[in-house]
Structure formats: structure tokens, C-alpha cells
From TrEMBL:
This is YafY family transcriptional regulator. It comes from Streptomyces triticiradicis. InterPro entries: CBASS_pafABC_assoc_protein, HTH_11, WH-like_DNA-bd_sf, WH_DNA-bd_sf, WYL_dom. Residues 6-59 form the Helix-turn-helix type domain. It comes from the Bacteria.
Length: 247
């Protein structure tokens, strides 16, 4: 069994035993490897964001939260390849790039059979030229959107003018490979779009933002015709839930 298959099997073994813990020694015997290898594999799963945890002391061991993990996913080879390409296209400077990376690792760990092979083979044939990540700004924008907080930022517009703004985030717009924060700008008292790579500094304020309709803020702008990506339809309207009728 290669390491990728063993990592997946470790997750499934812990899922099957949950909520009980399994010792490193028991896992080593199960997979016919030494305890050091199992310890290293479990550490790799933790670093990848898989919710495994160690309980010290007598009767302790390793366990996993089954509600925070994925069961085996039966992707077709084409679906696995499409997912691989989509993840490769997610630039490091894109919002939530870090969370996307750990989510991808969890999905990869849950794939089996031909889909897993197809994803691995295609991933080995994709390269990218890295771009500046702007991690501090990106993290501040992510936090403001997630917590619905007011955001203070410094911004350089297309003409090179720099200004300080206080904004209330409404959402994100992606166009031509670039990302924009759409927000109500308190400084300008109007809806504005801020290209993420032009934000030089950002910090969430300790203040809740007022809710703003993303579509309404885009009215009258070059992005007025923006639509929600079709790939996100299943997330915005999950199966079994109907959209509320307009009033």
C-alpha cells in the first residue's frame, strides 16, 4: 500500500472506530508498518486539516470527528480531472485560498479508484507561475466577509491615487482572472468595487457592518450584468430547499 492509499485508509479506519480512539500500535499492526510511520502519517493528516486528534494518557489514542470528515466520494475520472483543473486555477492570492487548499486535501483523501488515479496523473502535469499572495490583505478581507465586519483599507485606484476608506463588505466579484471586493463605501457614501491587488492595507474594525444587497450595489457599474456562477447553484440552493418566492 502506497502512502496516499494508507492516508485515506487511516481516515476510514478512524471513522469506523469513532468516537472510540485507536492506539498508534494498533494502527501500525493494522497497516503492517512501524509506529513511527503511523505517527508521521497522522501528523500529516493534522497538518492537512483533517480533524484527527490525540488523547494522551492511559486508554488514549487517536480519534477523528466523523461529522467533520467526508465519506468516500464516487467521482468519475472526468469529474476528478475537472476538480483538479479548477483547484489549479485558484490563484494563491484569491480569497479563501488557504481554506480551499485544505478542503482540496480533504476531498483528495476521500477519493478512491479511477477518480483518484485520474486526479493524481493530471495534477502531475499542471504547473503555474506564482504571483504575489498579499496574504495579510486577503486574510483581513476574508475575516470581514465572514464576520460581517466593517473594514478599514488603503487603496490605490487605476490612476495611482491612494486613499483610506471605511467600507461595509457586500461580497466578491471575479472577472478576467481578478478579484474585487464589492462594498458600501462610507467615505464616498456609495457602492464601490475594490480590486484586491490594489488594496495596500486592510484591517477589520470592531464594528458590525450593515447588510447590503450585492446586486443593488453593482447597478449602474460596468459589472451590473454579473451573475452568480452556475457551479455555485447547488451551494446557494441545496437539494431539498426551495428559494423563497419574491415578495
Amino acid at each position: 500500500m502506497n502512502r496516499t492509499d494508507r492516508l485515506y485508509a487511516l481516515v476510514e479506519e478512524l471513522r469506523a472506530a469513532a468516537p472510540r480512539s485507536l492506539t498508534v500500535a494498533a494502527l501500525a499492526t493494522r497497516f503492517e508498518v512501524n509506529t513511527r510511520t503511523v505517527q508521521r502519517d497522522l501528523q500529516a493528516l493534522m497538518e492537512a486539516g483533517v480533524p484527527v486528534r490525540a488523547t494522551p494518557g492511559r486508554g488514549g489514542g487517536w480519534s477523528i470527528d466523523p461529522e467533520m470528515t467526508l465519506p468516500p466520494i464516487r467521482f468519475t475520472a472526468a469529474e476528478a480531472s475537472a476538480l483538479t483543473v479548477a483547484l489549479a486555477a485558484a490563484d494563491a492570492s484569491a480569497p479563501y485560498a488557504g481554506a480551499a487548499r485544505t478542503a482540496a486535501q480533504k476531498i483528495a483523501a476521500s477519493m478512491t479508484g479511477p477518480s483518484s488515479v485520474a486526479a493524481q496523473e493530471l495534477a502531475a502535469r499542471i504547473v503555474t507561475l506564482p504571483s504575489p499572495a498579499g496574504s495579510a490583505v486577503r486574510a483581513a478581507v476574508e475575516q470581514a466577509l465572514t464576520t460581517n465586519s466593517v473594514l478599514r483599507l488603503s487603496y490605490i485606484d487605476a490612476a495611482g491615487r491612494e486613499s483610506d476608506r471605511v467600507v461595509e463588505p457586500a461580497g466578491l466579484l471575479t472577472a478576467d482572472g481578478r478579484w474585487y471586493l464589492i462594498a458600501w463605501c462610507r467615505t464616498r457614501q456609495a457602492g464601490r468595487g475594490f480590486r484586491l491587488d490594489r488594496i495596500t492595507a486592510a484591517a477589520p474594525a470592531d464594528e458590525r457592518a450593515q447588510p447590503h444587497d450585492l446586486t443593488r450595489l453593482l447597478l449602474g457599474s460596468a459589472a451590473a450584468g454579473a451573475v452568480r456562477p452556475a457551479a455555485l447553484a447547488s451551494l446557494t440552493h441545496p437539494p431539498g430547499k426551495r428559494e423563497a418566492p419574491p415578495r
